[in-house]
């Protein structure tokens, strides 16, 4: 049984392994040199300079050799010239079949009793038995036929369209421990067949070169329909040989079957399928012989020499089997010369298929290794991203060139108060890197409204940017890891609002937080690619008109409500505008600014109580007034706290509750009007003037009805993709926030930053503080926030069905061309300009892409 299992194991083709292939080549080189000539030195094509077309020639040479080797092996089974002529008369429509019949007949039954052990007692002279068992002897009749039949015949039993190559009948006995028949008897008939049509269509007895690869339809020497058909055929061969070997040896694997003392093999049979070339030395000055190439495949004569060696070793192996196994006429044995010869040929066919598959795969593996060697690295999507950052500098003009998504928050002429960025995280990079995006800065135009509370709408009147990053997603790989990073510098305060553009001119807040004094917040972004336009149309094709209308309407809504955006607000200059003090006057008033922010956050103090009202141009006087008001508000709040503390103390005394550590004597003393205040009043208080309504600056934007509707951009981009390049794999991408944030803060000025993990669902207090401050600095929505930046992000993803290396090696495609074309489509949509106004004028190659896009557009319109 173990020998039979070994035969079955060797009848399988293993996946490609480079080390195994190299060992096979090394073992074959010596034999090939002896077969050809000792003065000739064939070598693996990877070790010889060669041209790309040589790889096509090599694939054709290997396939034609495999076809001839297959016919040589079948000739040992009786498929000779006469049978081949009959198959040609059938227009090559033939199949090879193997069928086996088993019939089991019970012929005798025997009951065996086992004696009882020592100590068992019975009557005198009576023998005790512990148990009894019944065995059954079966007569097994096995018959099989190996034949070729015409494919379009009504049945393989039709003798007119059936050529029997070999057959045999055998009868043997099997003993089972029960009355149940052997397992293999449960399948009295088994049939294995394989089509030979492809084999005989490409067999050519004259020159052995019937197989060729159509270069016009081939992606690579390995990836084309012709090689794919060849590999399918040889894969089917291995399936057929495995079934035949399993069927022959199945009776030997049942309990009680006769043991097989020896199993056949194909050791010593030459495998002629080897990817070797013969180096050709071209003269240094190759002007006279321009057709000389650095290498050449072996000739047809060499192929025939290999095949003759294979046939010779096959016949020798067949003769060896004849002298080793019982004769065919011995009907009492299961494995005779006929079965051994058939199994040997099946094993050889399997090895031929494995050698052919490995040889063809080695061409692609060599291309992959050469590409990696040329690049100096095994490229990953991050490497393509890095290349495109470099390439964009050449392709786009200075105005539309992609920029790094990293912005300093600053007022004009001052140092930054913080930064905001979208950073790429990748192990192949030395650290976080700002992503590169197509960026458009829009005029303020219509104000963007932000609903802060139920009754307060805040208007963003600062700069606004539109960003269009393009991501790349290859097979089996996820989209890149991107973090939204906001950082505040020391003694500065920022408000970060994260959400989406809900409709034209409306920003919907999902997250609001305050950053101050060197605090950092990292929010991971999650990306989800939408269905491409082509796939969406394919899905709609099977729906009813009403279902299609519903799907289109809902998809339009999803696209419009998926525009990710965030705003960053510099609090200090906004407070200066709010308090009616000159811009920049609070830059060095750090404590005063801190006190004002605290009053706004902790007590929601109306800004009117602190705002300077008057016509004085004295900056110092205005600041002094604000400081005085802040001091008075703090005094009033301290007084209120003290009153609450006294009241609590009295209640505690009445109720006999232990008091806390509060110094009530000091509190009572401060109630005495004659007691000095602990706060310093200004020496020359500014006379308070009647409050006047705050007027917007003369250049304050009043709204532009023609400003960009950002919610329409995903739909416009999808329409442009569908129009110009529907099969490119480019699609819009939605953005959502990750569930785990990282917050860096410092406990003191000199301490190091401490990282903490933030759950966005448990930050209601931080959200409330940010909203309170937002409402305060906007004067409950009446004062537009000029010192703000709004960043709208409309990403898209270029998806590929293969990995990066497979795309280049297997599909013979340049991903750079695909990404450049996608970048052009996105850029023309984002900037709303013709392509000639976007690309650099010296990029002639890029203008060719423009022409192709225009031609495609015209074809679509015409259709």
Based on the model shown, name its key terms.
single chain; 9-stranded mixed beta sheet; 20 helices; 26 strands; disordered N terminus; elongated; 10-stranded mixed beta sheet; 863 residues; alpha+beta
Over the alpha carbons, how many angstroms does the gyration radius reach?
A: 43 Å
The average pLDDT score comes to: 82
List segments where confidence is low: pLDDT < 50 over at least 5 consecutive residues. 1-5, 667-706, 857-863
Largest sheet: 10 strands, mixed
Helix content percent band? 25-40%
Strand content: 15-25%
Secondary-structure content class? alpha+beta
> Tally of extended strands?
26
Number of helices: 20
**Principal-axes shape call:** elongated
Layout of secondary structure:
Elements: H1 2-10, H2 18-36, E1 43-44, H3 52-76, H4 81-89, E2 94-115, E3 129-150, E4 162-176, E5 189-195, H5 197-201, H6 225-249, E6 276-279, E7 295-297, H7 300-324, H8 337-375, H9 381-395, E8 403-404, E9 406-409, E10 418-425, E11 433-434, E12 436-442, E13 448-451, E14 457-460, E15 463-468, E16 470-473, E17 481-488, E18 493-503, E19 506-516, E20 520-529, H10 533-540, H11 545-560, E21 564-570, H12 571-578, H13 590-603, H14 619-654, H15 664-670, H16 713-724, E22 730-737, E23 741-745, E24 754-758, H17 764-777, E25 788-793, E26 796-799, H18 804-809, H19 815-831, H20 844-862
Parallel strand pairs: 13-19, 15-25, 16-26
Antiparallel strand pairs: 1-6, 2-3, 2-5, 3-4, 6-7, 8-12, 9-10, 10-11, 10-17, 12-15, 13-14, 17-20, 18-19, 18-21, 20-22, 20-23, 21-25, 22-26, 23-24
């Amino acid at each position: 049984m173990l020998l039979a299992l070994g035969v079955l194991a060797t009848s399988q083709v293993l996946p490609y392994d480079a080390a195994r292939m190299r060992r096979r080549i090394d073992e074959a080189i010596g034999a090939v040199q002896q077969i050809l000539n000792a003065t000739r030195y064939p070598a693996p094509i990877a070790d010889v300079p060669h041209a790309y077309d040589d790889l096509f020639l090599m694939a054709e040479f290997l396939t034609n050799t495999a076809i001839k080797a297959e016919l040589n092996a079948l000739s040992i089974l009786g498929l000779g010239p006469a049978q081949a002529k009959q198959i040609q008369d059938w227009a090559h429509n033939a199949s090879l079949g193997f069928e086996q019949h088993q019939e089991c007949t019970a012929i005798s039954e025997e009951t065996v009793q086992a004696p009882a052990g020592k100590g068992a007692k019975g009557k005198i002279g009576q023998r005790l038995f512990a148990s009894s068992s019944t065995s059954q002897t079966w007569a097994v009749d096995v018959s099989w036929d190996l034949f070729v039949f015409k494919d379009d015949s009504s049945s393989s039993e039709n003798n007119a369209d059936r050529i029997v190559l070999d057959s045999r009948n055998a009868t043997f006995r099997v003993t089972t421990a029960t009355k149940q028949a052997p397992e293999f008897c449960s399948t009295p008939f088994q049939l294995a067949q394989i089509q030979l049509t492809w084999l005989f269509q490409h067999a050519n007895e004259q020159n052995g070169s019937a197989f060729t690869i159509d270069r016009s339809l081939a992606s690579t020497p390995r990836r084309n329909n012709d090689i794919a058909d060849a590999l399918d055929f040889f894969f089917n061969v291995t399936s057929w040989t495995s079934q035949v070997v399993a069927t022959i040896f199945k009776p030997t694997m049942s309990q009680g079957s006769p043991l097989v003392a020896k199993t056949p093999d194909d050791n010593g049979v030459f495998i002629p399928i080897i990817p070797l070339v013969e180096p050709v030395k071209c003269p240094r000055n190759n002007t006279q012989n321009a057709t000389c190439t650095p290498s050449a495949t072996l000739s047809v004569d060499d192929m025939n020499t290999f095949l003759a060696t294979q046939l010779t070793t096959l016949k020798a192996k067949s003769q060896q089997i004849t002298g080793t196994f019982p004769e065919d006429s011995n009907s009492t044995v299961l494995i005779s010369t006929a079965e051994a010869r058939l199994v040997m040929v099946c094993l050889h066919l399997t090895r031929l298929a494995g050698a052919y598959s490995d040889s063809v795969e080695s061409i692609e593996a060599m291309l992959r290794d050469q590409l990696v060697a040329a690049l100096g690295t095994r490229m990953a999507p991050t490497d393509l991203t890095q290349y495109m950052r470099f390439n964009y500098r050449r392709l786009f003009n200075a105005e539309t060139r992609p920029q790094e998504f990293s912005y300093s928050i600053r007022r004009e002429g001052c140092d930054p108060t913080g930064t905001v960025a979208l950073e790429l995280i990748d192990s192949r990079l030395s650290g976080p890197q700002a992503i590169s995006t197509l960026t458009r800065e829009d005029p303020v135009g219509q104000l963007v409204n932000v609903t802060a509370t139920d009754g307060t709408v805040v208007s963003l009147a600062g700069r606004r940017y539109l960003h269009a990053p393009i991501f790349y997603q290859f097979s089996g790989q996820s989209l890149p890891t991107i973090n939204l990073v906001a950082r505040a510098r020391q003694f500065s305060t920022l408000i970060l609002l994260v959400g989406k553009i809900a409709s034209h001119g409306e920003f919907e807040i999902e997250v609001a937080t305050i950053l101050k004094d060197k605090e950092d917040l990292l929010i991971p972004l999650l990306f989800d690619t939408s269905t491409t336009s082509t796939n969406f149309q394919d899905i709609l094709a099977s729906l009813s008109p009403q279902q299609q209308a519903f799907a289109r309407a809902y998809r339009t809504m999803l696209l419009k409500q998926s525009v990710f955006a965030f705003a960053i607000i510099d609090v200090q200059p906004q407070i200066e505008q709010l308090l009616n003090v000159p811009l920049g006057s609070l830059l060095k008033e750090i404590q005063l600014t801190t006190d004002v922010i605290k009053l706004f956050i902790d007590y929601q103090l109306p800004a009117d109580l602190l705002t300077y009202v008057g016509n004085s141009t004295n900056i110092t006087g205005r600041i002094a007034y604000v400081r005085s008001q802040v001091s008075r508000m703090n005094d009033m709040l301290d007084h209120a706290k003290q009153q609450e503390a006294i009241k609590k103390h009295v209640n505690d005394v009445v109720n006999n509750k232990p008091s806390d550590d509060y110094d009530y004597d000091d509190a009572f003393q401060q109630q005495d009007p004659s007691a000095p205040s602990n706060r310093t009043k200004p020496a020359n208080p500014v006379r308070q003037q009647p409050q006047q309504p705050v007027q917007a600056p003369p250049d304050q934007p009043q709204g532009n009805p023609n400003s960009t509707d950002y919610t329409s951009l995903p739909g416009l981009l999808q329409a442009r993709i569908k129009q110009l390049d529907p099969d490119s794999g480019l699609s819009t991408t939605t953005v959502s926030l990750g569930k785990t944030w990282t917050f860096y803060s410092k406990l003191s000025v000199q301490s190091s930053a401490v990282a903490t993990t933030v759950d966005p669902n448990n930050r209601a207090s931080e959200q409330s503080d940010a909203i309170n401050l937002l409402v305060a600095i906007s004067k409950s929505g009446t004062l537009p926030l000029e010192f703000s930046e709004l960043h709208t992000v409309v990403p898209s993803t270029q998806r590929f069905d293969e990995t990066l290396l497979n795309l280049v090696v297997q599909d013979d495609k340049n991903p750079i061309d695909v990404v450049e074309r996608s970048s052009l489509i996105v850029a023309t949509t984002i900037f709303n300009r013709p392509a000639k106004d976007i690309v650099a004028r010296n990029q002639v190659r890029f203008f060719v892409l423009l022409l192709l896009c225009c031609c495609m557009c015209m074809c679509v319109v015409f259709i």
